[in-house]
Amino acid sequence: MNTITKTLLAVAFLFICSIYRGSAQVTPTTTGVNLFCQGSDLTLPAPAAGEDWILRYSATQTTTPSTGITLTNGNKVPAADLNTGYYYLTSKKTEAGSCESEMQEIPVYVLKPLIPAFTPAGFCIETPLEQTATVDNPETSITTLAYQWYKVSGGTETAIAGATSQNYTPTTASSTVGTTTYRLKVGYLIGGNKYCPQTIDHDVTITAKPGKPTITVGTANGTAAAVTF
């Protein structure tokens, strides 16, 4: 392979890399990604005394971000303005004519809220019924979710041991006649950690087993009466 061919291949490789870098988008598993639940602010540490933060944004990875971000109180991006993408942070002294620092790249992914639901299924205490849930997942790239069922009493939730699946069937031993509030909590499972949980509560009616009948034989309608003849 001659020198000209090697040079052309190197140029082509760099060109392809630049195209890839220019189109790379943030995903939940991007290296160094900062995950935010929708509705959360991005709050930076306060800048050093005598300095200001300068923040820019790009939907894709770039070396020349052009969208300037106005920071609230000098260090915050409000939830309404926070988007998935790359933020580029620099600092600059407040004196006129000061230089701007090199950029720090901050990849951000904003997780949309899950929407759980379940239809309460009342049951006799001796024959518990499955509580069946559904979850609307708006993040198509995240297929693994974390589940936990709870009992709620007086505003306090108590996790049910082992109830970590989408559906839950109570046991007779853990049930009490009356009304029990069950809660399902579901969140995204990313890198072994749980994020942005959403909950749904429902009251479930649990009835007692009826008592054994104690009628006296001979008093039931239709019973043959003793006769003489």
From TrEMBL:
Question: What span is annotated as the signal peptide, if there is one?
Answer: 1-24
Keyword Signal in annotation: yes
Report the superkingdom from the record: Bacteria
What are the UniProt keywords, alphabetically?
Signal
UniProt key word Signal: yes
Name recorded for this polypeptide: Ig-like domain-containing protein
